[in-house]
Amino acid sequence: MRKITLALLFLSCMSFVLALIAQPQLVTSQLVGSGSQFNRVVQDVQKTDSSGATPDEMRGLVTQLNTVMQLQNELDSLPPQNTDRRAQVLEQINRTLTSIDGEAIRIAANASERTSLDHLVAYSSGLAAAVLGTIVYYYGMLLWRKYRIKRIMGMRITLPER
User: Percent of the chain beyond pLDDT 90?
Assistant: First the structure.
């Protein structure tokens, strides 16, 4: 029993250490163009959502994306002759997209770490409960056997008279 308990304790410690060592990696892609940049930012925001970001975190990203779409509509409505204003709006769109992308990657890393930690706690709790259940079962059976032996030893044997 001690060997099994020690082995389970060792396995749980090793899994905990491995989970702490495995940190999420930040990966960014290169800028190609305004349309592809927008698509990439939307994909990063979707990855952020799927990695476990909270609704409040997503609300900020979506609000910023809506701002970019409004700026894009403004850019489309400007006449081609107004090059200075078009350049300003395009620069603002690029800055906003870069800001959203960086924030989405940061939030995704935090959310991924939070989710990993939640999974680690859940699985460690399950392992601890299994070990505790095994120990309780072992000692319960030990006490039951002692009770049975004591009961058997306390019996009186009477032989029928002939």
Answer: 52
Whether residue 59 lies inside any domain: the answer is yes
Q: Does 55 map to a domain?
A: yes
Which positions ≥6 away from 44 have C-beta within 8 Å? 100, 101, 104, 105, 108
Question: How many domains does the chain fold into?
Answer: 1
Neighbours of 24 (CB within 10 A): 14
pTM: 0.59
Residue 103 belongs to domain spanning: 33-122
Q: pLDDT tens digits, residue range 35-86?
A: 788 899 999 999 999 988 899 999 999 999 999 999 999 988 888 888 898 8
Residue 140 falls within a domain, yes or no? no
In a domain, 131, yes or no: no
pLDDT bin (cut points 50, 70, 90) of residue 124 is very high
